[in-house]
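Handoff note, outgoing to incoming analyst
You'll be picking up this chain. Sequence as last confirmed:
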Amino acid sequence: MSFFIGGVVDLVVNDIVLLTGIVLFITYPRTPTQRNGEETQVTCRSPPVIPNAQGPPPTGPFPVGSSYRYTSYVAGYSSSGDPSTTCQADGQWSPVVFQCRALADCSAVLRADSGASGNDGVYTIIPDGTTQKQVFCDMTTKGGGWTVIQRREDQSTDFYRTWEEYKAGFGNPAQNHWI
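Most recent structure output, in case you need it:
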């Protein structure tokens, strides 16, 4: 098996996995279809290991037509695309593509996670597309999806801060905070 890691690509070609802006090309050795002049049954080896997928894939060999579906969750991202692969007639697995998009605010979290509706709490967002932030999301008021910029439950956190501290954010998003 060989790997090549490159930059962000919007075009899907061959076996490409797009995760959080990193493209991973995966190639596998072909399974022989003939041995000593005799035909053998074409099979695929184990499905490829995909970064951020939950658990390793099962071990092979697998007959042509077998399929495997990956499950994955990366905090602060929603995924799209087809996370499954199928053993093809040439002994190769079909391409697997995860396209992950940063969740910029709580409304994006609400759209991406059906379980978030009605569940106020701390969620991970990526407001600038690269930096993860823990924020409190109001998922109940007027349909939910509200990113709480300032929350003050009690006097335990001092809000008398410098401008630099306000730009960076501070506090505990489950209680008193500023983002």
